[in-house]
Records
---
Amino acid sequence: MKKRIAIIYMLTAMLTFGAIGQSKVRMQDFERQLAQLLERVSEAPTDNERYLASEEAVQLLSQALDEPESERWTWHLPTVASVMSSPDGKLRVFTWPVVRDNGEYECFGIIQFYNDRDEEYQYQVLNDKSEEIMNREESVLTAGNWFGAVYQDIIQTTFNGRTLYTLLGWNGVDNLTERKIIEPVTMRGGKPQFGAPVFRRERNQRRIVLEYNNHAMVGLSYEEQFVREVIRERVKVKGSSRYRTVETYKDHKEKMIIFDEVEPQIPGMEGLFQYYVPSGLELAYSFVDGKWELRNGAEGRLSDKKLNKAFEPLEKTKPAYGR
């Protein structure tokens, strides 16, 4: 009897490992074919060929994400494509651009996510509707109505048991402008929702869009910086009954989203983003009590040095970026 059980166990193990091996081979084949398609997306000589390759890449990636092994698969794709995975493994975003002959960009991709309600991984195709979205900073969007970007980082934060994913992205737009985008993503009804009112003091704002002249250099990154906390206390003046306020400083490190403020280079050009350039001021968002708190005085290019001035929340009258 024991011998029979051992044989059954061995056969089951062989079948299991065989299935895993076959799935791995299939994933390797998907990855190889997808890499070839993405190379065509960036190198094909005509718009039609680039779009055809992109559509085939979406279809092939969809097939790959139906594989159970895709949940754990580490993708190695050409640099034209971005693959961003959240630290908890519950969200992964594939994005890439198609550049038309006239210099205009359109983004493509798929978002893979864990649906807590269905207790399984699912995916949705991303449809770039960025040029059709009127209130682009205030709109709540879905995968089918997506403000297109190629994502460069994914930030995971948690407050009161609720998880927020914040995506940092870029879009080449056209021959005049580019965009940098801060895109919050939450799970609603088990599905991803783009845009959330998590920017403190920015009323009705659900994403940050920095649009600027395509020759300008605008930074956007998530990194650890020093924050200077100002400590004020009243102390008694020696030999007197009077008191005075004494300020001391305490530095600590904190991860934050650092970005350049942009504004019109020429007065009167508000809203004409081809005239927007960095103002010279760096701003930052720190995650505080479930919200992104806007601060100024950031020194994102001096991350190995302490601040030489207090790092305070941004005043309400100071705009976050050019409009």
Note: The longest helix spans residues 2-43.
---
Amino acid sequence: MTDPVPKPDNPTPLEEILTSLIESHGPIRVADFMADALGHPQYGYYMTNSPFGEKGDFTTAPEISQVFGELIGAWLITAWEEIGAPSLFNLIELGPGRGTLMDDILRTARVRPKFLKAVRVYMIETSGRQRYEQQKKLQDAKVPVTWATEMHDIPLAPTLIIANEFFDCLPVRQFVHTGDKDKACWQERLVGVNKSSKDGGLRFLLSEELHEIPAGAPATAKPKDIFEVCEAATGIVHEIGRRLQDYKGRALIIDYGHGRSGFGDTLQAVRDHQYWPLLAKPGLADVTAHVDFGALARAGRDAELMVYGPELQSRFLTRLGLEQRLATLIKTADEQVSEQLRSGARRLVHPDEMGTLFKVLCMSSAGLGTPPGFDK
């Protein structure tokens, strides 16, 4: 059971800050609310919580099954060989969680000692709390591991990038179609103070300013349709493009979302593995939005990268050999562990679990072939 929403007369410190800001300067964009709810230096969700795993608020693929990280590790070894097996290269993880994925990747890479000798690991993490968890997990890593706040802090070199459930945490702006079928008008969705209620709190409202149709939105909008724009994601893809143009490399993006740009309100908040009222008590719950893989692909092509996918996670992992790896592990496992392995693998690929909601996209330097998992 999720914790009850705190009473209105007990606002979180972040809610008090946002309320004061809005009352002084006016409503804020949804993206600004989301950025503070997650990343406020003192009171943001990721700064004050340990969200991952069964004891946290949600569980990611690396926490579900070791097979996930092992398959990604094998994919990265192949990618390193495809870019010429450089004697020194960067392995960058965006949003590394508790460090479980990188730990599995490095364990798998023991089969290629030259890979481990060449790798320089960089963990992009803004939360000091999460860095501490990652440092504990990787304290016995036999490779150099460096933490950075932004990608442009990392030296240029041949580069492999992994981003698992990172882009869904980036702030999105929301635009609402408020015209009719003959005339398209768009207004931005904002967050304001709920002055009409004695209990206060935050509420959604629309900007007075009218906007042109947002870039990337289909031309089939109906009244009240919502289109989400993630400017931060575009900026990150352009930074990836800058790196992969100067040096060979690949970037692998895994997340939940839609393959084509479309309409819909995908913002959601989660606490204790259950949905949480989106604007209630900011800082206490994770706030995410579905990733627009169509927009990511367009940004990748704009950055002159080769783009593959998006592919369903189920197909991608199956093509990488999930069933074969699972069979190998089960051979030497007892009945209880075998059942845990089967259950974890099912969650990764079953259409009612993560198999179809989660997508995989690869961006590569020019001149490289189709990466494993994307071949038909």
Note: The CA atoms of residues 12 and 281 lie 6 Å apart.
---
Amino acid sequence: MAETSTAEARDVAGEVVGRTPWEITRARIRQDKVTLVAFGAAIFFILLALSAPLLTRFGVIDPYKANTDLVGGLGSMPIGPLGGVSGQHWMGVEPGTGRDLFARVISGLTVSLVVATLAVLLSVVLGTIIGIVSGSAGGRIDWFFSRLTDFFLSFPQTLMLVALSTIVIDILQAALGMERTPASMLFMILVMGLFGWPFFARIIRGQVLSLKEREFIEAARSLGAKQYRIYFKELLPHLWAPILVYTTLIMPQNIATEAALGFLGVGIQAPTPSFGSILNDSVHYATSDPAYFIFPGVTLFLVVLSFNLLGDGLRDALDPKADRQ
């Protein structure tokens, strides 16, 4: 009878079920409508960027095809409203050439996401390794990597991209036998990645300093665990939260940087489509054909905004001090 009463009491009161940190994080994200919308938008833009090369290959879109019959009049402006918007050209066409603007925008999105993603991966890998080693080893190793971080932080990234672009791109073309566009993409990936890791290394180092004196690290050392195991088997699994948050926060920054460089004429050059080169061309038609500027500008704004909101939402969801109710 006593057991039955206890069981009934549990049914009435309800069992207390423990949840893992990832289950808590997923529950928080599901309750955050803004983060869910941002996540859906980010996935949409990623899929759109991935589909652009396939659509171009199979002839569904063509970012380089000139449609001279769609432009005319003074300055070869697009025929029709909103820069020639129609069922075949969802964002209209470019003045002068008549090239499909939607095809060029999503092809430019592919370039931006490839450059931004590879640069982020390079920053994350370098920052994680250096941050773990620096924070865990301490002593002279920590001093050396801390000074190295300060050295890289003293260089302004944008200025380095502008100043070194011509020289480094020419070297890459000569050394690797690359064309101008792949060499420009590789240059931006290397510079943004190599100048982006110091910020992340400092974050990881701070996390490691708070973790390395924990009981599980002391237990691993007492059992004779080697240093690389402590780095990558004991410490790294506890660092996925800041890694994930930093990745989503730095992505929009790199996308905006790539667009800014293209606008300044340092990044991807025409006729290869990119946000920067499209916006650079569109400012000349800001009054005569504002749609040429608005469509690419709004698309870039939405891409950057979706990744920013996603990063903010993940940061709040992964914060262990946040309200867990």
Note: The domain at 28-57+89-317 is CATH 1.10.3720.10 (MetI-like fold).
---
Amino acid sequence: MRTFLEFEKPVADVFGKIEELRALGDAGVDGKEEIAKLEDKAEKALAEIYSKLTPWQKTEVARHPDRPHASHYIRRLVEDFTPLAGDRAFAEDAAVVAGIGRFEGRSVAVMGTERGATTETRLKHNFGMARPEGYRKAKRVMQLAERYRMPVLTLIDTAGAYPGIGAEERGQAEAIARSTEQALTLTVPSVAVIIGEGGSGGALALATANRVLMLEHAIYSVISPEGAASILWRDATRAQEAAANMKITAQDLMRLGVVEEVVAEPLGGAHRAPYDAMDAVGGAISRALGELSLIGASELKSSRSARFLAIGRSLES
């Protein structure tokens, strides 16, 4: 069952007619020629719509419930994945999936924020919003990667760190800062991919990498459009206006030098052809790791710090 966004209504209507004709076909009515025409019409309409998405529409695509999640990418791209649990201080946080495995035959440490796909798994993974123990687990896995000289791959899809009272009591801000600090001090290659929503420090704690990649319809921001609208105008309904002014799309961030590569998505978004989207991300990671493998340990560390300092200077000017 396809889930269509509001701005996709013209395409939804065409797909509805296609399904009706297919149902008639099951009843013995030959509608193949008409179905082919409608499929061509739907593809052209989809191409037209997605060629001029607004920042808010890209936000909706980035949040699409059928979009592949971190766990899907790990299953597709990482062989022999062995999950690691717990922060060795308080508890396990399922919002951050982490472990070790092999990417194209090379041992890697992998981390990702996982939203969950069903009501049960969304609750289990806390909708991808990590608590302090999730970031402390990430720090532990990065330390393991450093010890055994494994590249670090991170997959980010989160609205932000969990803002609950318990999380604040257990040192949410400090945990995010320590994870970011650990990422900055790595002397092994690190590649981060924003696969959906990259929200605030909760995303940056895992995205402080040598190479930051973004899917074509992903977003990356210091605060959600709804949050920005609430602060600026005390009106969350002005989220579309906020999104238009925040420069949160992959294309904007590429121009600003915040990300190194925008990974093209299948027509209509990653949720329409998830395997194609995941393979495209795998190819981009492979290219980034190939480039980074030629750089020495000390330069990997210094260039990563310089990269983020340069972003701050360019955005300030």
Note: The first helix runs from residue 9 to 26.
